[in-house]
Structures are given as structure tokens and as C-alpha cells.
Amino acid sequence: MPFYREIALEGDGRLSLWKITEEEHFPVELTENSRKRLAGMKLAGHHRSFLAVRMLLQRAGLTDHDLLYTPDGRPSLEDGRHISISHSHGFAALYIGTEACGIDIEKVSTRLQKAKPHFLQNEVVPPGLEPLTIIWTVKEAIYKLSDSRPLSFLTDLHVSSLDLNSGTGTACSTFPGWEKEFHFQFERMEGYILTWCKEIW
């Protein structure tokens, strides 16, 4: 069954996951704009991720017609609720709720080892690829809350604390005019890290 699971978050938020398989058929209705976007995608993996997100929307009682995009590419919902989308290889993830929440899912791999100079500055990182992946997903999730501000993962976003046992931590943005603190949670699943993040008020 491609639908993987749903996580009930604090408040009315729901985070749902779709496990993407190569042979999958996606019985979903698309808008004309989405059909054009899909036709422009060259990689089959991008096709499947795009459609898996629409399947999650459908499961949430929505359609592709309810999903809007701002001129800078940020997703939004016609009914005003918050939405966050992520996908990585074999999974797609979707958050919907009345509270803003950024999500990110990433496969644990050596790719981020090479990218360390671009997103790690002063953080004290436990050894291993998993902590690197967690920190990356936290920064991606915060970026999705930033309304496309030109944030630097290296100098503007910082993970303040990380507890690998409880799957929680805190982070902050020091971007001028957008100084914020955040709480995040993460889960490990089948070689992936799923992270969700909310602002601390």
C-alpha cells in the first residue's frame, strides 16, 4: 500500500507520508497548470514525487485545484490552512494544519558529507551521517517557513540543541529582521530522516 502513515501533530496538524514505488499508478485529477509542469519534468522520479503529493492531497479530502503557488513557488491552500511539502527518492510528505509548520524528508547518504562547508558553521555535530542529515532537514524545514527570504544555511540558520534519543531539538534564525527560535522533532524511517519544525512563540 503506497500510503505509508499519518502523524497527528500538536493542534490540528496532520503530517502524511506516501511511499513511492516505480510501478505505481496514480489515479489523480490534475489542473491544466499541473499537467504542463508534469510534462516538463524529465526524470521519472520527479513525476512520481509530484503525483504522490497529489495523492496525499486527495487523501486529505482536497484536490489539485485546492493547491496554489505564489509567484516565487511557495505552495498554499485555497482554504487558508498552512501546507508544507517535501519529497526525497522513495517518499513524499505533506503537512496540512492551521499552524505554520515546515517539513523536510531526506535520505541519509554521503552527499551531505561533501556539502558540510555550505551549511555547517559553528554547530557541534555528533559523528555520523544521520546527525548531518537531521541538521540539513531542520534548516530546510525552517527555510520553508521563511516566505522565501534569502536565508543562508551557513550563516543565518543554526541548530542550537539536538537530542538524538528523544528526536527533538531547537534551532534559530539570525537573519536580520527575521530573528526567530524554533522547536523541531524528527523520526527515522527506512534510511530516511523526517523532520517537522514550528516557531517558538
Characterise this structure.
With 201 residues, the chain is of the alpha+beta class. The chain has 2 domains: 3-99, Ribosomal Protein L22, Chain A (Alpha-Beta Complex); 105-199, Alpha-Beta Complex (Ribosomal Protein L22, Chain A). It has 4 helices and 11 strands; from the N terminus they run ββααβββββααββββ. The protein has helices at 32-39, 44-59, 111-119, 129-143, and strands at 3-8, 14-19, 67-69, 75-77, 82-88, 91-97, 102-107, 157-163, 168-175, 178-189, 192-199. A hairpin with a 5-residue loop joins strand 3 (67-69) and strand 4. The model has no long low-confidence stretch (mean pLDDT 93).
List keywords for this structure.
201 residues; alpha+beta; Ribosomal Protein L22, Chain A; 2 domains; 5-stranded antiparallel sheet; 4-stranded antiparallel sheet; 4 helices; 11 strands; 36% strand
Terminal residue distance: 38 Å
Evaluate the radius of gyration: 17 Å
Annotation field: number of helices: 4
The count of strands amounts to 11
* SSE string: EEHHEEEEEHHEEEE
Q: Which bin fits the share of residues in helices?
A: 10-25%
- For the biggest β-sheet, the strand order reads 7-11-10-9-8
Share of β-strand residues: 35-45%
Structural class: alpha+beta
Question: Could you name the CATH topology of the largest domain?
Answer: Ribosomal Protein L22, Chain A
Largest sheet: 5 strands, antiparallel
> Are there runs of 5+ residues with pLDDT below 50, and where?
none
Q: Could you say which overall geometry the principal axes of the C-alpha atoms support?
A: globular
The quaternary state of the protein chains shown equals: single chain
